[in-house]
Design goal:
4-stranded antiparallel beta sheet; 22% helix; Immunoglobulin-like; 4 helices
């Protein structure tokens, strides 16, 4: 308690406080006190070896400006002209490819029938049933891609066709013919409602596209179940 009173007396007197800060021992409230020297750590070797100035990072953000009279490779007019020519040639090639793609007929883009053999092979089916003919042309071309809105069928001599698969085309439940498009598979499906009177004959199903091109498939109709 005496030391606390002595310290309070020294700190309250400005003269004694200045002497105390100067490192002199004093007596307060009858109790002598002496300041304890503060311990100072030796300077770290790590800081001693740190350079006075950090070296600037080369081209930290932008390359330095050229000196007067100095020319860089990017200043060459030949380089600029060459890059411009390459860009122009690339654009012309892309435009040409797009143009060629747009000039292809729908029959050229035809990706084949998914469940039928290609002409002139015969595909067996039951007369009077509805069968599905699925095909693709590289994407959606609208529902007017077929001339007249739907394919046409006509009699075809069976002997002029070649024997295809002996499997019977799967029948679906449909009362009339229709054309649909599936965005997930990018394919059209023509549901064809056949006639029972076609039993024992062959027919040619022709897909005539609006641009005048066409694709076709042959069907050999067998009597359906009664």
């Amino acid at each position: 308690m005496r030391q606390v009173n002595a310290a309070w007396e020294i700190l309250s007197d400005p003269g004694k406080r200045a002497a105390w800060d100067g490192g002199h021992g004093l007596t307060g409230a009858g109790t002598p006190l002496a300041p304890t020297p503060a311990a100072r750590s030796a300077p770290s070797q790590e800081w001693a070896e740190w350079p006075a100035e950090r070296l600037p990072r080369r081209y930290a953000v932008y390359p330095p400006r050229p000196r007067p009279g100095e020319r860089r490779r990017s200043d060459s007019p030949w380089l600029v002209g060459g890059l411009g020519s390459l860009i122009l040639v690339g654009l012309l090639i892309v435009a040409g490819l797009v143009g060629l793609s747009s000039q292809r007929s729908l029959a050229d883009r035809f990706e084949g029938f998914e469940g039928q053999e290609a002409f002139p092979e015969l595909n067996r089916a039951l007369a009077g049933t509805a069968i599905q003919v699925t095909f693709g042309v590289g994407g959606f071309e609208g529902y007017d891609l077929l001339e007249g809105g739907a394919p046409r069928s006509r009699f075809y001599p069976c002997e002029n066709g070649t024997m295809g698969s002996r499997e019977i085309q799967a029948a679906v439940d449909a009362s009339r013919s229709s054309l649909t498009y599936a965005p997930a598979s990018h394919a059209y499906t023509y549901t064809w409602k056949t006639d029972a009177s076609w039993a024992g004959s062959c027919r040619e199903l022709t897909f005539a596209f609006r641009d005048g091109s066409m694709r076709r498939a042959l069907f050999d109709f067998r009597p359906g179940a009664t």
